[in-house]
Amino acid sequence: MADISIRKVRKSYGKDEVVHGVDLDIRNGEFVVILGPSGCGKSTLLRMIAGLEDISGGEIAIADQVVNALEPRERGCAMVFQNYALYPHMTVAENIGYALRVAGMPKAERRKKVEEVAASVGLMEFLERRPGQLSGGQRQRVAMARAIIREPKVFLFDEPLSNLDAKLRVQMRHEIRRIHNRIGATSVFVTHDQHEGMTLADRIVIMNKGTIEQVGTPSEIYHNPASTYVAGFVGSPAMNFLPAQISASRQGVTLGGGQTIAVDAPAVAGRDGKLVQIGLRPEEIAIAAPGAPGLVTRFEFAEELGAARLYHLTYEDLTLSVLSTEYRHYTPGEDVILQIPASAVHLFDADTGRKLAHTAKGKAAEVTLA
Amino acid sequence: MIERTPILNVATHLILITGLALLLLPVWIAYVAATHDLQTVNSAPVEIWPGDQLWINVQAAWTQADFGPKFVNTFIVSVGVVVGKITIAAITAFGIVFFNHRLRMAIFWLIFITLMLPLEVRIVPTYAVAANALMPFQTILDWTGMTWLIERASGVRVDLQWNMLNSYTGLILPLIATATGTFLYRQFFLTIPDELVEAAKMDGAGPLRFLWQVLIPLSRTNIAALATIMFVYSWNQYLWPLLIITDRANYGLVVVELGNLVPDAMTTGGGVPNWHIAMAATLMVMIPPILVVIFMQRWFVRGLINTDK
Lengths: 370, 309
Description:
The complex is a heterodimer.
Chain A: E1 4-13, E2 16-26, E3 31-35, H1 42-50, E4 57-62, E5 65-66, E6 77-80, H2 92-103, H3 107-120, H4 136-148, E7 154-158, H5 166-183, E8 186-191, H6 194-200, E9 203-208, E10 211-216, H7 218-223, H8 228-233, E11 240-247, E12 252-255, E13 260-262, H9 265-268, E14 275-280, E15 286-288, E16 295-304, E17 309-315, E18 318-324, E19 335-339, E20 345-349, H10 360-369
Parallel strand pairs in A: 3-8, 3-9, 6-7, 7-8
Antiparallel strand pairs in A: 1-2, 1-4, 4-5, 9-10, 11-12, 11-14, 12-13, 14-20, 15-19, 16-17, 16-19, 17-18
Chain B: H1 6-34, H2 38-42, H3 54-64, H4 67-98, H5 104-113, H6 123-131, H7 135-143, H8 146-154, H9 168-172, H10 179-190, H11 194-202, H12 207-218, H13 220-235, H14 239-244, H15 248-251, H16 254-261, H17 265-268, H18 275-305
Helix pairs in contact in B: 1-18, 3-18, 4-5, 4-10, 4-13, 13-18, 16-18
């Protein structure tokens, strides 16, 4: 059981810096998911915690002990790898018990522990098999069991589910969460799959190009993305982005075609004329009956998703998608009226991509309104 | 591209059978010669069917060449060479593949280049080293004046000697470095996923434990392949033992003794060449490598063609 504290950690290979000074505190027993596209430095960060990569700058402390100079085995971390990394020549039991064998635990005691752990992940009947004779899901369980048996302070997962098929992935996801709840060790889970991030995490860390974009609970990340990058990365189907300009007189933002969308007052106050990107989640936009007031767009085609329908629309020369349970029939080129609640509009700075914070003036305005 | 037509099948089989016949013909001739007596072997035309003298010839060859102790010697040397080669090659490849040091590519290429320098090419320096393996150190001491200094200080004249001539060590040590083996191991080690190495690190296994408990068990088929090739190689050594063993009675190897049995003007003293004895001896000398190959074949082929994971 341990906190992990990451302070100004950098990693460079030769002259290329891939992690640029990351600060992160992970609380004891927390399940943190590091989410980002490939090449964003998330695996490197994890491997630095594990001790598999040297730390080029800054420090990492586990349970208040700086571990920069410690060997992986001295850090009390266990890791589950993407390709399981089981020893092909050992049986399942030997694989699970290898760390204990290295530590010099007597055979009988080891056997007992192996059976205990194997039973907890449902591997009892496979103990004498070799990894080659197991399915992907079973191998994943062996990898988990191998990590659990060491009773580590910290669990590290490096995209452990990406080699499984979709159904198994969901199943293993639940299993991982169950194990975490039972054992309560601090867990750091790296993935590029936003669903895994959203469903598993207590807190998500979004990384981009070697820096942290945002840290927050899944719901904070979803409802209050700190930048266009986060907003575009999390949520499926992806968020729509439209360039616009703030117009104080109309209490909203004006789009390229001259139409206006109303926005919450605090965000626009004192920013008249500012160029912004607005972000709209496809599931927060409603489709209105023809002739109703709202944003007029053009129908392109629709995808049937079963529970809902994904409408692909164009506005000026921008594309836009809307997820709706409203079943209307349109022909390509026909007008579709969209109703966008002011609370659904996310405003981002057009230059920096950062979310526009409510201004001091805006907050004052809010107070007056209340 | 694999095409299957009756004509092609016949043609390919014909080629294969011809090749096989060509390969087996000398063996057959040796076998036939080993089964006749002196007169028949030396009469024209050459006999092509076996006779009934095999057992007699084998016994004669065995006593003439004193094969009993020679087989034991050869066996000791071959096993020594095989074990040495397997061990050295594994450790070298381990060092080259799994440790990130600056010189590793240079070292690998240096080793690789020695593939082009078989023992025959460097036989003179190798002999010099075998005659006194400590000579290089002695030379350094002489040149730097250390010998003189030590003699002055203690009155003892430093004279380093390690003579390996006429010993098993001399037969084995110069042969155990193997670029082929190192290369074979290296290629296999390169197929080991990094994750496996890292998993072992996380489990707390140090480098030697990883080598011993993970890499070596995984290299079983490689080891078998290498052992087979190298056993045949060292069993068939001729030049090196011929050169460094003058005490044939104690350290003679079968292949060298066999060379002695082959009749020439010197051994027969102008008498009738006793090919039947030489061939009977040849058959005996051939048997151990053949047995090794047959026994190891299953492993051997797997080791050379895939990594069996």
